[in-house]
Request: fold
Amino acid sequence: MIRVKTACLLALSTLALAACGQNATSGSRDSIRAVGSSTVFPFAKAVSESFARNNPEFKSPLIESTGTGGGMNLFCQGVGADKPDISNASRRMKASEFETCRTNGVTEITELQIGLDGLALASKIGGIDLKLSPKLVYEALAANPYGKPQTAKLWSDIDPSLPAKTILVYGPPSTSGTRDSFEELILEAGCKENPAMKALKDSDEDKYDQVCTQVRGDGAYVDQGEQDNLIVQKLIGNSDAVGVFGYSYLEENATKLKGISLGGIEPTYDNIVDGSYPGAREMFIYVKKAHLDVIPGLRQFVAEWAANWGKGGSLAKIGLVTMPDDALAEYAKAASEFPSMTGEGLK
Reply:
């Protein structure tokens, strides 16, 4: 009897997705699929494990670390059994991504902030000792700082008070939300301290974006793909290297790595919560509403997020920075009511 009921459910799932305009290649799907951010990945895996324990009647979700940009691309391809249900993101959805979703028939999306994170710079304990600022990081890692050729080879070339050590930074690729946050929160913030760059933004925004956010490609910044744990290993193996990743990875490896201050402010939990740390950022999941009553367990999986993202919850124990109380209340409500995004405020 149970098998018959399951078969009926899957058949109905296929029909429902077809009615939503899907272009599925075959059949239906009886497990949840989430794609996206490598920073959100460990939290999504933890929620997936909790969901599986608490809901044994459903299959374990499939969580893929594709990077925020890659995840959004997959998520916005359309509605159907061959398309993801959730996109995990270490930044907010872009206006261009929202429009791509709409063009491809993904017209109803619920946005849920899951918590906060810090974009941490770190090095090995006992390794290179740096006191940086967004301005110094920009001057060290921009492809063309202030529109001029990048000539710095050593940290001391940027500021004589810094070590005469080769600039070597391991970080995320261009498809990563962590990279987007790095460019916006650190590089651009440092760049626009220069009055000429602020003026350039008003006169030629495209050139401003290129000058202020393009990362140098001569080997001083090394793209490590969507594998933040690989960056951790690189730092442990090289005392002169610096890494860029989410705060949770710094906290997880606190016995091996040390955070690098920005403007005299350390990447700590409290400094991220109060917004004083320059690299503080919001993290999200995006839910495809057309899949809610079609993919078994999807509503329950979202509810599992809400049950674990609060103060003292399981996600806080592995590095998630809990949202303020008003945001917790807002998104807990959204996790049960699933309001649709309007696109307002997206950049």
